[in-house]
């Protein structure tokens, strides 16, 4: 087969020689081809390489040597054996042939047997050489393939993704990389012994179906996320990409699996961050709304009641402002922890922002269940918080709405709960309120009021009224306070109590405040240009004007514009607005003060300012809050506060104004305790500009105090029974006392404020305030008085208690002996130590005579 397949190229320029050689070779079965020259020989070899060449040496053109050397010089033809045919016998010719690369020589004429032998041997040798070459090439191929495979393996093993090859026919893994093993916790051998159903959630049939669909090009090749089960049973989150590849007659499914645990965790973290409050870790507004929406949907299906509680910390801003944001933040965290402890696991607590928290309670008990939780929250706040070395006490105000009674949507439920929370604040804080339809009406009314207020400024509906302040020294008007009024169409004149808070909340107060400053300065100018002359005027300014406007610049500009001397203008600020924005406020006030504008603190006593704190502000005047003045003659605490404020203000060289003085008793009390000025209905209500101008022109002033006769002995008799009162006045008419009478404790206090009584005789049995209780308060306010009670026998026990507490110095049981009573009152006056000195007091002198 080999012999028949071999092709021999005969190269000779002589046709007869070619023929002869062909004839000689024919019996061997070799195929023969011919070339008549060296050039033809080279072309023939190029066309199809022969297995052997018989090459004549002597040829015109390229001779045999040249042909041989060209063929041997090229790799593709170098291995073709060449037998040179030459008539030349000399050695030099042979050597030249060998040099050119010929393997053998045959001398012409050619011997047939020798030709066959040489041809056969050379062909065998070539075949052997070809085989060697072939196997070397094969070897090279195999090592190259092995190296490729090794590289592929290494690359597969080096990838961070797991790569698994599944044979569709056997449904077994046929190749897996190192990552597959580490990701799934199997050895390579273990993995190669199982199929995909060992890792995934599907059955073998399901996988087969999926693979067949992929093979048929019906999808399944897209990226998808799933979980694979590790050998130890744990799950790993993965992203899988699959592809079907043909391998001969079979199909291989290549799965590239990426561990996405980290990515999933990062996604979860991001999701958590987007839905939770960073400070407290509670659900934020978005998640809270979402949860509420889902809860309402479930509630609808099951007929549940859902309560929404809106919880707001009381005075949280004060904590932030005075103790700093770090303490404020910590308070919010601790507070949220207490909130969470007040609810069940299934309830939701969220932070809606700032100090606003909200709860979702699924409660079969409706209102009752919600109230229980609200009470629990309020109780949980009773214990103080220990925050960075500070002990902080806080309370909360809570508003509650119930679904389905109050509303059906999250928006409405939260809005209404917010409204109810504000009601809780108005009710004094530290309490809760359920939402009611009336509250909704109030919210609507508020909206309406806000719209009307916005228009009021544009429509020029605001006016200023002016209330005089009178000096207690000479009774003259010391100045006026400008008070805002709103001439609301259809509503008459509206007092600021009804709209100032809303102006503050909406920020409108800044623009209205500017209007007040401008109007007040214009009015001072008008009075300056009129017979009224110079009038000191104070205006109220809101804290927001300090923060949001350039208050100092604005005030100074208005003064300049109207050519008003700065000392005629005074700004009144509340303690709270001072406390809120200290640095900015101090700057602004100092600026104004440098220009001689006066500064007054309004509603003093209601805030938290300490003496040290006040000294930081350039203040001229303190105005004592109306609430203390209202009770100053009857409530020992209010009286003590008023006296303390007056003495503190004087020690700081500040002027003191008492606000809301309505009665002569209040006036006398304040006068007696050296208050500087009073403002109140007693002297004048706030009046419009024209009427107050008239009052000023008339030179109206306070009546001077009654001259005080220090030696006068005043007896105050208090009895609700006019008959008895008359009898007692009659009894003492000849004893030379100045007798004051009162029909109740309240009247008694008034009388004591107006007149300095040394001895008080009081009936025990009076409605509202009995004698002992009245005298107990009198003792606190006027400790130097001698206090005597007329009582019935039945009151003995309470009388003894009153005597023991020091409220009552003496008591007489009815009916009394008139002469003895007169005698005892006389002695009481003798025992009283007058405030201006002299005479022994009731506790230092002789004991009073025994009671009858
Ligand atoms: N019961 C009683 N009340 C008396 C008596 N004497 C005066 N008043 C009232 O007490 C309030 C004193 O003003 P305020 O403490 O500055 O309290 C003011 C002030 O805080 C605020 N306000 C008034 N006008 C302005 C303003 O132009 N700007 C700002 N920001 N607030 C203003 O509204 C509050 C209330 O103002 P008004 O309703 O005018 O109420 C005035 C006045 O009419 C009295 O003898 N008895």
Automatic annotation (TrEMBL):
The keyword Kinase does not apply. Residues 148-192 form the PAS domain. Residues 7-123, 714-829 form the Response regulatory domain. It catalyses: 3',3'-c-di-GMP + H2O = 5'-phosphoguanylyl(3'->5')guanosine + H(+). Residues 222-272 form the PAC domain. The lineage of its organism: Bacteria, Pseudomonadati, Pseudomonadota, Betaproteobacteria, Burkholderiales. This is PAS domain S-box-containing protein/diguanylate cyclase (GGDEF) domain-containing protein. The modification 4-aspartylphosphate is found at residues 56, 763. InterPro entries: Biofilm_reg_signaling (IPR052155), CheY-like_superfamily (IPR011006), EAL_dom (IPR001633), EAL_sf (IPR035919), GGDEF_dom (IPR000160), Nucleotide_cyclase (IPR029787), PAC (IPR001610), PAS (IPR000014). Residues 446-700 form the EAL domain.
């Amino acid at each position: 087969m080999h012999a028949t397949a071999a092709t021999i190229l005969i190269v000779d320029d002589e046709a007869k020689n070619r023929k002869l050689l062909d004839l000689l070779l024919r019996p061997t079965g070799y195929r023969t081809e011919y070339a008549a020259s060296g050039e033809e020989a080279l072309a023939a070899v190029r066309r199809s390489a022969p297995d052997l060449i018989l090459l004549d040496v002597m040829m015109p053109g390229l001779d045999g040597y040249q042909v041989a050397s060209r063929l041997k010089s090229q790799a593709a033809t170098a291995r073709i054996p060449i037998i040179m045919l030459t008539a030349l016998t000399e050695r030099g010719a042979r050597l030249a042939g060998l040099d050119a690369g010929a393997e053998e020589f045959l001398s012409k004429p050619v011997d047939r047997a020798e030709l066959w032998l040489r041809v056969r041997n050379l062909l065998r040798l070539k075949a052997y050489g070809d085989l060697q070459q072939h196997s070397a090439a094969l070897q090279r191929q195999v090592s190259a393939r092995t190296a490729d495979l090794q590289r592929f393996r290494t690359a597969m093993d080096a990838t961070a993704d797991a790569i698994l090859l599944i044979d569709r026919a056997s449904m077994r893994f046929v190749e897996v990389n190192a990552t597959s093993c580490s990701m799934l916790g199997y050895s390579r051998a273990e993995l190669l012994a199982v199929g995909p159903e060992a890792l995934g959630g599907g059955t073998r049939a399901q996988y087969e179906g999926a693979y067949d669909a992929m093979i048929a090009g019906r999808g399944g090749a897209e990226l998808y996320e799933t979980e694979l089960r590790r050998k130890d049973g744990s799950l790993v989150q993965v992203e899988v990409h699959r592809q079907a590849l043909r391998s001969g007659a079979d199909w291989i499914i290549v799965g590239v699996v990426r561990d996405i645990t980290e990515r999933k965790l990062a996604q979860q973290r991001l999701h958590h961050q987007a839905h939770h409050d960073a400070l407290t870790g509670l659900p934020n507004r978005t998640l809270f709304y979402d949860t509420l929406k889902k809860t309402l949907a479930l509630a609808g299906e099951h007929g549940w009641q859902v309560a929404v509680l809106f919880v707001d910390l009381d005075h949280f801003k004060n904590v932030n402002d005075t103790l700093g944001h770090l303490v404020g933040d910590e308070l919010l965290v601790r507070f949220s922890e207490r909130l969470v402890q007040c609810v069940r696991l299934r309830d939701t607590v969220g932070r809606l922002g700032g100090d606003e928290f909200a709860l979702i309670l699924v409660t079969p008990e409706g209102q009752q269940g919600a109230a229980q939780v609200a009470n629990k929250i309020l109780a949980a706040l009773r214990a103080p918080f220990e925050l960075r070395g500070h002990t902080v006490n806080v309370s909360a105000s809570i508003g509650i709405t119930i679904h389905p009674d109050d509303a059906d949507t999250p928006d409405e439920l939260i809005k209404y709960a917010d409204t109810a929370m504000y009601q809780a604040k108005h009710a004094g804080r530290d309490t809760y309120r359920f939402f009611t339809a009336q509250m909704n009406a109030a919210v609507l009314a508020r909206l309406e009021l806000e719209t009307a207020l916005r228009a009021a400024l544009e429509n020029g509906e605001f006016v200023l009224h002016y209330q005089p302040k009178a000096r207690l020294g000479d009774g003259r008007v010391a100045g006026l306070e400008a008070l805002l009024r709103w001439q609301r169409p259809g509503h008459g004149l509206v007092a600021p109590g009804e709209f100032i808070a809303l102006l503050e909340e909406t920020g409108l107060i800044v623009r209205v405040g500017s209007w007040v400053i401008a109007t007040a300065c214009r009015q001072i100018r008008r009075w300056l240009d009129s017979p009224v002359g110079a009038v000191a005027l104070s205006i109220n300014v809101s804290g927001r004007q300090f923060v949001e406007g350039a208050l100092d610049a604005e005030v100074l500009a208005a003064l300049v514009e109207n050519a008003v001397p700065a000392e005629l203008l005074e700004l009144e600020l509340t303690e709270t607005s001072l406390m809120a924005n200290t640095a900015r406020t101090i700057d602004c006030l100092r600026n104004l003060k440098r220009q001689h504008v006066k500064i007054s603190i309004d509603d003093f006593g209601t805030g938290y300012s300490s003496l040290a704190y006040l000294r930081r502000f350039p203040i001229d005047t303190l105005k004592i809050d109306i609430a203390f003045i209202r009770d100053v003659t009857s409530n020992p605490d209010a009286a003590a506060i008023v006296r303390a404020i007056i003495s503190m203000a004087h020690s700081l060289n500040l002027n003191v104004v008492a606000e809301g003085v309505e009665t002569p008793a209040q006036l006398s009390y304040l006068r007696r305790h050296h208050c500087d000025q009073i403002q109140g209905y007693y002297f004048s209500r706030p009046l419009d500009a024209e009427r107050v101008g008239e009052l000023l022109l008339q030179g109206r002033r306070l009546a001077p105090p009654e001259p005080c006769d220090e030696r006068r002995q005043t007896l105050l008799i208090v009895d609700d029974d006019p008959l008895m009162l008359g009898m007692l006045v009659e009894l003492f008419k000849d004893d030379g006392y100045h007798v004051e009478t009162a029909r109740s404790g309240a009247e008694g206090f008034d009388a004591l404020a107006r007149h300095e009584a040394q001895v008080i005789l009081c009936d025990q049995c009076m409605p509202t305030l009995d004698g002992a209780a009245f005298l107990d308060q009198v003792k606190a306010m006027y400790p130097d008085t001698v206090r005597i009670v007329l009582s019935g026998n039945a009151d003995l026990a309470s009388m003894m208690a009153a005597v023991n507490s020091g409220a009552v110095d003496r008591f007489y049981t009815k009916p009394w002996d008139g002469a003895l009573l007169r005698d005892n009152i006389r002695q009481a006056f003798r025992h009283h130590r007058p405030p201006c000195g002299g005479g022994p007091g009731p506790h230092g002198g002789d004991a009073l005579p025994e009671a009858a």
